[in-house]
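In this section we turn from sequence analysis to structure. A common task in structural bioinformatics is to predict how a protein folds when a small molecule is present, because the ligand can shape the pocket around it. The inputs are simple: the amino acid sequence and a SMILES string for the ligand, here magnesium ion. Study the lines below before reading on.
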Amino acid sequence: MIGSSVLERHGLTPDEYERIVRALGRAPSETELGMFSVMWSEHCSYKSSRIHLRRLPTRGPRVLQGPGENAGAVDIGEGLAAVFKIESHNHPSFIEPYQGAATGVGGIIRDIFTMGARPIALMNALRFGPLEGPDGARTRRIVEGVVAGIAGYGNSIGIPTIGGEVAFEEPYAANPLVNVLCLGIVRAEALVRGRASGTGNPVYYVGAKTGRDGIHGATMASAEFDERSAEKRPAVQVGDPFMEKLLLEACLELMKTDALVGVQDMGAAGLTCSTCEMGARGGSGMEIDLTHVPQRESGMTPYEIMLSESQERMLLVVKKGREAEVEAIFDKWDLHAARIGRVTDDGLLRVKAGGAVVAEIPNEALVDGAPVYDRPATRPAYLDTVTHLDEGVLAAAPVPDEALLALLASPAVASKRWVYRQYDHMVRTNSLVLAGMGAGVVRIKGTSRALALSTDGNGRYCYLDPRRGAMLALSEAARNVACAGALPIGATNCLNFGNPERAEIMWQLVEAVEGLAEACRALDVPITGGNVSLYNETDGKAIYPTPIVGVVGLIEDARCVIGRVVRRRGDDIVLLGEGFGELGGSEYLKTVHGLVQGRPPRPNLDRERALIALLARAAAGGILQSAHDCSDGGVAVTLAECVFDSGGIGLEVDVPGVPAPGPAALAATLFGESAARAVVSVRPADRSALMQMAADFGVPALAIGVTGGSRIRVAVAGELAIDCPVAEAELAWASALARHFAGRAA
Amino acid sequence: MKARVFVTLKPSVFDPQGQTIADALHSMGYTDVDSVRQGKYFELDVSAASAEQARALAAEVADRLLANPVIESYRIEVEDPSGVGGRNHRDVSVSG
Amino acid sequence: MKARVFVTLKPSVFDPQGQTIADALHSMGYTDVDSVRQGKYFELDVSAASAEQARALAAEVADRLLANPVIESYRIEVEDPSGVGGRNHRDVSVSG
Amino acid sequence: MTFAVIVFPGSNCDHDAYHAVKHVLGEGAEFVWHKETSLTGADVVILPGGFSHGDYLRTGAIARFSPVMTAVAEFARRGGPVLGICNGFQILLEAGLLPGAMLRNRDLKFHCEHVSVRVEQTDTPFTERASSGQVLRLPIAHGEGNYYADADVIRALEAGRRVVFRYCDPDGQATDASNPNGSVNNIAGICSEARNVVGLMPHPERACEAALGSDDGLVLFESVVAALAGQGALRTA
Ligand SMILES: Nc1ncnc2c1ncn2[C@@H]1O[C@H](COP(=O)(O)OP(=O)(O)O)[C@@H](O)[C@H]1O
Ligand SMILES: [Mg+2]
């Protein structure tokens, strides 16, 4: 029997080992053990989340490809498909921020073009610790590195990073989150799958040479941090965006021919994962000879070659007899296509080194043989205390003007220009909404259409109520694309949580998944794929449960795209939806009172659905000048953001007060974060049309004021509550983030 | 006093730049250049009483800012002012 | 044989990277670091019969590709295989 | 009229230049792979933006050795209009078709944003339709656009009226605050002595449609079309 230390090093339990022995009918060789360990890691096998993920709705009239392939795909009309997926690269980005984030971008881009799609947009959702305080200096270094890494890779390969989000919360200090989303376009009938079929078809390896780097990266991504993680550092890899650009162009050129059978990138678990997954999907076997695998270092063992996670590598199965054609295409791009094996019909993954067989495993065992755990889940005790909001503290509220300025200057709300200015968000000349001006929007050349993208997920909400938090994440992302004039047609998600072996964490995960599933059904936005990142904790301290949701919205007439910013003085401002003064978990409580307390706003999915439909219709009808959703900071912050970047246009509005307890009333009205709300501007002539349309859609709508002047003047129930020069508010908002980095070394 | 810090990627870490430069040189016909590794080179002007002190300072600075210990290692050279023709007599230290 | 090429910005050219690093070091309290210049460092593995040949090859490669004469100058070091303890006996050449 | 858009490995604004010329301007455009040795049939040559060879070593340093560059140099020598945009400009500098070099932006950060650029000279094939002093709103997207040349070269450029574009504020003042990268004299673009080779860091091809935030860049392409129509296309043999 095998030593427990060996199993530990491979992150396998004795039971799992027994399972392996049963699957093989014998004890595994060292190479085989390594292959099982990466394929059965949480990262590759989803063993803790699988049974819960089944709850997510993944079907819909537009869904062309659900979860299971390298990325999902939805029908966007005119014979085209949008291919998209979100991926996490959390642990590597903490260990080496620049390269960790860069290789994360590289990985998700490969997932998209392996589907045959031309990548046209990137998004990123980032979570860090506070920029000041004890870990401030380290956090700023991580932020600098992560942003530079995303920029370094995305800018170089020439895919615009059109949006995303950043938040700063204490629980992310030692476990930052780096989630990256990529969107691509392909003719629906030209979708490529990662399948190996056709006995005798040659198997090719293309791209970077295999080195010892990243070995056990997959298991690392599944192991919680501790003192020993230092030893795992060599698992960091250096990204090569130039190599990937060549791979991207060469693969897309190859896909124009019909010589390709299937393709998959080598990401986590490298050669092991790509070979067995392609075999399993195609219901066939595969035989490869490691002596033909291009190697960067001498004397690599089969174990190392099979587990290496060197970046920028692809595995292809092509039609027998078309070899010359395929090799010629890669030669053109100065890439060497190495023939390393062939497809077989025995369902086995057979790995040879020279003559000797070093591994022979049924594909099924590696891909679907992993145990599926239904881990115990219990409601965390902390909820008993934190969900109670003590109104007392609210008595000591600052005047609304000060509160507004404080919120605008808080890193979560402040302009993210310091971030997105480092990203090329215009390359490919499709970006209809410039970064920072709302959801990301890219037109589809050759059609009248455009796609809007938004990623959202409020960790604080999820910490206080994971079910509501997940519902609100999808709601906000869907609302954001609707604010650009789009109808949400599909979503992807990245579930970032702590250690699932702890019942409290597991409960958060289950609640969040169920909440997400319910919201997807209610807004009928199917989930086409995603990623789960667990063990985001250090020495027992977990991150906020953070489901990040990315929503894709369709705009049929690209000319109808709208943004966040009002266009002219004298337009009417209309508040869509209704505020209930919900301050629980709000940015206001955190920034102004230093509290993470209460229950997050109640999701109102019916109203959300109606609001989204209304926004999309009104935009398509050309009667909206601008639209911006109410989220962090409530209606007051939303109103301010509507006039920022407008060149100094002000506004004057009067919003209805909400019935809230005494001193909290004013703050609750201005800064409460009730869902299903948006602020739009319309020409006076279009106002009645909008009101009528809102009535038809059953959306509460109230004309609250007009644009004009150069101040932000907000009255509550007739009483002027906020009166502040746009210039002053905009400066606070625009300079806050950059200030933390000014004059500091890159 | 001059301290030179040479920062290079650890041998096990892939160096795409060096690889690309080598490829370019080969296509230019320089086939006698077998491989290229690219690193960073820093020249520090330091006020120090001795070569040892200068070296210690350079090492601290390299550890804290110039080199990324996760993927890079560094080497330090200090010109010994007492030495003749500076460049040929050095105090060398290697890390990583 | 190993040839090392050190590429630095000409003294007349402003070095934003070096300046930023110096500023950072000062704000970190390293006031004894008077100034910093950042350059590039290349390690070439070359097949050459002699140190001279290796140096000549490295120099040609530096002239044509590794350095941009408009802004940079370079220095070459070749490990003299005959020399003892390599690093202390070098064949040095300076350009630019 | 045919625009040749050179494609180097790592070029990534090649499609943008092609789109602007073909679908916005309505002229002919063809991609030319960097391994080609002839530019026969080309009336205008565009070196597009991107990260040729990853911009490893130095921006444009490796691309200048591409086989096609010999043909580009010959095309330029015969007076053919050549436009280098961003990485294309950097390649022209490395190739010696334009003087000077690029340093990293003074804040060491990549900048992607719209900036104001003042047209300094209208007697180049790419600016003859613009008016002198006209302020264009163009995007920049680069990390190494900090133009440098030694004092003599700068003097010669200014004296020869070869600074074609300068970074400025919206009112046309070339202030330090409006200099996004630290370029000497706010230089955003220059031309060759014969004035037919123009390089600039901003991206006119990204500013040819109002829907993208600006169409101020169109004037560069309209200018060269007019220039060639005016004097009859200077085709390469
Ligand atoms: N990490 C990022 N990368 C790129 N763009 C970002 C990033 N974070 C925020 N942005 C942009 O800044 C703007 C404001 O972000 P956010 O406050 O999250 O918008 P909203 O509250 O409407 O969801 C959006 O346009 C968003 O795309
Ligand atoms: Mg948001």
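The pocket of magnesium ion (ligand 2) is lined by residues A 165, 456, 631-632 (CB under 6 Å). As an exercise, try to locate the residues that line the magnesium ion site and compare them with your own expectations.
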